[in-house]
Amino acid sequence: MNANERRRAGRHFLQIPGPSPVPERVMRAMDMPVLDHRGPEFQKLGKRVLQKLKGVFKTEGPVFIYPASGTGAWEAALANTFSPGDRILMYETGHFSTLWKNMAIKLGLQPEFIPTDWRGGVDASLIERALRDDRERSIKAVCVVHNETSTGVTSRIAEVRDAIDAADHPALLLVDTISGLACADYRHDEWRVDVTVSGSQKGLMLPPGISFNAVSAKALAASKQAKLPRLFWSWEEMIPHNANGFFPYTPATNLLYGLDAAIDLLNEEGLDAVFARHERHAAATRRAVEAWGLETVCRDPRLHSPVLTGVMTPEGCDADRFRAIVLDKFDMSLGTGLGKLAGKAFRIGHLGDINDLTLVGALSGVEMGLTLAGIPHKAGGTQAAMDYLRETAGN
Ligand code: PLP
């Protein structure tokens, strides 16, 4: 720290929609000597986490772990499943679905992108129609983002599965739940998802650095025919090593200690309780936004995200200037508006290891920041959230 920098007492409020704050117990679990990743001690850890992860994805099938951010797991999902020129159906829910689509183009695939204005979620009827229109059955997969982190919209994956079934189409279903996993209900096997993509730094409450592919038998079979080049991402390379608790290259050993501890925390609280906590905090946040007289990015009341709330700033009010004020005055990071929403929206993350008082602290920082930034709003949002939290305390 140089002489011009202030020391800031207390804890930084990391209220972006991931990375999320890492619990003490997870930090301590990672504070271990680095170990031999080909030795017996690691093998026990490897076997344990590969097995325990299945419960979080609700799958009996394999979950591959990459030493990479979520973008790596996106690439793994595409590279293992497709051949150059394959047609895939993607859905523009926001910035992250757009990035995934751009990646598909770069990899030589032909995505068809169902467009939206980023204020809603996946309309499964449009997927059904596109699949019905595909008489030659040349669309290889439907790829959707479960929780669109750029907007705060959680799409209904079960409805997408039903649409594929209703069209009686053989397309695979690929789902990005990088920010949804362990925050919102997610069922890889029950929804017959073929590849689920996720990451460590959101609901799993770990630092960034590892990411995942949960894979169905159908996707594994498709990978045998898939011709896109791959090595680092190859499921085939992983399978024999994972069977013994090992990896084909050096894994992120200390993050795996953290993963082991993080899954314990989730199981101790109970996944359903974790989801309910996220829903309740999201509902409290929306009370605040409504009382401030501001608009959420999500316009569909059925699809508000339990992970984050995207908030539109009124016309002419720079959301990033507001965020900079909140950071400077109250040491709190809020999520920036991404892509089309740059400068027009900010995002309040309420995911991972947070409780009622964390949320009230965060909302009070937003409310004070709105005043300091001169953003027109009504007072009382934090109070409205507090009323809701008090009324539902213990629920
Ligand atoms: N998909 C979603 C929904 C995300 O929220 C993110 C990151 O925030 C990504 C993909 C990209 O993941 P990463 O930044 O870890 O590479």
Provide keyphrases for this structure.
395 residues; alpha/beta; Aspartate Aminotransferase, domain 1; Aspartate Aminotransferase, domain 2; 2 domains; 7-stranded mixed sheet; 3-stranded antiparallel sheet; 14 strands; 15% strand; globular; binds pyridoxal-5'-phosphate
Structure description:
- This protein has 395 residues and is of the alpha/beta class.
- The chain folds into two domains: 13-20 and 270-391, Aspartate Aminotransferase, domain 1, CATH 3.90.1150.10; 24-267, Type I PLP-dependent aspartate aminotransferase-like (Major domain) (Aspartate Aminotransferase, domain 2), CATH 3.40.640.
- 42% of the residues lie in helices and 15% in strands.
- It has 13 helices and 14 strands.
- The strands form four sheets. The protein has a seven-stranded mixed sheet with strand order 2-10-9-8-5-3-4, with helices on both faces. A three-stranded antiparallel sheet has the order 11-12-14. A two-stranded parallel sheet has the order 1-13.
- Helix 2 (40-57) crosses helix 9 (253-269), helix 5 packs parallel to helix 6 (157-166) and helix 10 (271-292) packs parallel to helix 12.
- The structure holds pyridoxal-5'-phosphate.
- Residues 18, 69-71, 96, 145, 149, 176, 178-179, 199, 208 line the site of pyridoxal-5'-phosphate.
